Each structure stands twice: as C-alpha cells, then as structure tokens.
Amino acid sequence: MSSFPTSFDGVSVATKANVYFDGKVISHSLILADGRKKSLGVIFPGEFHFGTAAPEVMEITAGSCEVVLDGTTETLAVSAGSSFDVPGDSGFTIRVTGEHCEYICSFGTP
Amino acid sequence: MSSFPTSFDGVSVATKANVYFDGKVISHSLILADGRKKSLGVIFPGEFHFGTAAPEVMEITAGSCEVVLDGTTETLAVSAGSSFDVPGDSGFTIRVTGEHCEYICSFGTP
User: Fold this and answer.
1) Is A11 in contact with B6 (Cβ distance < 8 A)?
2) What pLDDT, in 10s, does the model give residues A66-87?
3) Could you tell me if residue B4 is inside a domain?
C-alpha cells in the first residue's frame, strides 16, 4: 500500500480535458515545476486499451481495476493505494467494474 | 466571444476528482497562486442542478449548454468561448445535449 499526494503544487494544468472512449475515460494533464508530466484521470466501468509512448506509472487513487499489460497474459488486480508500471512503446488493457476508478499517471522519459 | 487560457500555471491541483451525478459531471479543483479557486470540468449530456455557495463564473471552453439561473425563467444558450455568472447562495440548472461540454469555473468571495 503506497500513499499518494492529495495535491500537486506549483504545476501547470491544461484547461482542456482529455476525453477518451466517449467519456468513459477523462483526464487533465499536468506539468510539474521540474518538467515532469502527469495526468489525473477517472475511468468509468468498461474495458479499455491504451498505448504508451513514454513509460507510465499508474497509481490508483480511488476504486480498483484489473490490468493486463501488452505482451503478457497475467491479470493484475490493482486497488486504491497501489500502482502498476507500463513500459514505453507498449500498452495495457484496463478493466473497471462497479464503481469508477481514479488515477495519477506519471510519464517517464521515452 | 471571450478567450480562455490554455493552461493555468503555478497552481495547486487536487489529485482526487469531483464526480457528480454518477459521473455525468466531473471536475478537478485548482487553487491559484493568489488563492483564488477554480475547477476544470466536463459535463456529459443531461440536465443537472448545482447550488452555489460562493458566486461563480462559468466559462464554457468546449461544446455548448443551456442554462437557467435559479429564480429566473430565461434560458441562456452558452457556447464555447462564452461564459455566464451565477450569484452566491443560489444555483443553476444546466442542460447539455449532443457533445460533452467543458468548463472553467471560477469561484468568487462569498
């Protein structure tokens, strides 16, 4: 169980939201003072595939999800307070059932 | 037609989203460096009533909506690039049809 920050301070936040899959996945993009990029998002019930360019760390901050990384067959059960890593130039399938799931996505260097 | 910023810089953003009406309305809360509070949100099709504590300025940044302020009967048609003001201790009904609508909500002093 990892903890996550309740806020990010001194950041630049894009006013326009990122809306994917007819609004089933929504995020807002942040750039931290040191240049690192993150997004804060909400995923509603469904199953969605995302590709990655940069590697990503996905911290789940509310709800839970099941994840299958591209090129693997194992299903990872991830709940609030936990995270999973996704390599760059890859992707993952995320499944949310029941309640919506919230995340902090942190982008690494491609 | 007013313009709106593409980003807010030097802000504090809450990691947890505000999710209303079963996810039909989602926002993230910001606090600007000078202490002013804003939220960035997305509204999916439907009709929703919000109460206000502080007065609010709602700038529509994508899509469009129809608004009826509490205590009035006039329907305001508001599209991207326009805004509407809501008094404090009041409220408004907002209706979105078709595409989702995005907004910047700026909270004033109660």
Assistant:
1) no
2) 999 999 999 999 999 999 999 9
3) no
